[in-house]
Specification:
140 residues, HotDog_dom_sf, Fatty_acid_synthase, fatty acid synthase activity, MaoC family dehydratase
Length: 140
């Protein structure tokens, strides 16, 4: 079901989303994006450059976090703008569970063109991983 503009108000909170990112996800994303930087697959290399271990691709985390908005709107095409700043990495353990990223969202503004601004928060272990994340959404 596609959400209608008449059903949305400033202050509305989007249903939260819990996302798991596993090492298998990193392999699939690397293949799709052609980003084979060793910080995303080689534990030794990641630690040598000062990271806590293998980390998720920032763009993978960003893309997965957008799911909160597309599911809420009911139509991925309703998202007309999406932006983030990368705040901190998401370390992905070498196990079957991976890293758990919690995503929340809140409608913060109705813009002059009738679109809605939604602020998105993504956190790992209670710390924000995306800064200034927002989506601009056009609803029917």
């Amino acid at each position: 079901m596609v959400l209608a503009a008449a059903d949305v108000s400033v202050g509305d909170e989007l249903p939260p989303v819990s996302l798991r990112i596993t090492r298998a996800d990193l392999v699939r994303y690397a293949g799709a994006s052609l980003d084979f930087n060793p910080i995303h697959w080689n534990e030794r290399f990641a630690r040598e450059v000062g990271l806590p271990g293998v980390i998720a691709h920032g763009m993978l985390t960003m893309g997965m976090a957008a799911r909160i908005v597309t599911e809420w709107a009911g139509d991925p095409g309703a998202v007309v703008e999406y932006g983030v700043r990368f705040g901190r990495p998401v370390p992905v353990p070498d196990d079957d569970e991976g890293a758990l990223v919690e995503v929340t969202g809140k409608v913060t503004k109705v813009l002059e063109d009738g679109t809605f601004k939604v602020n998105v928060t993504a956190s790992f272990e209670g710390k924000s991983v995306l800064g200034g994340a927002f989506a601009r959404v056009r609803l029917p």
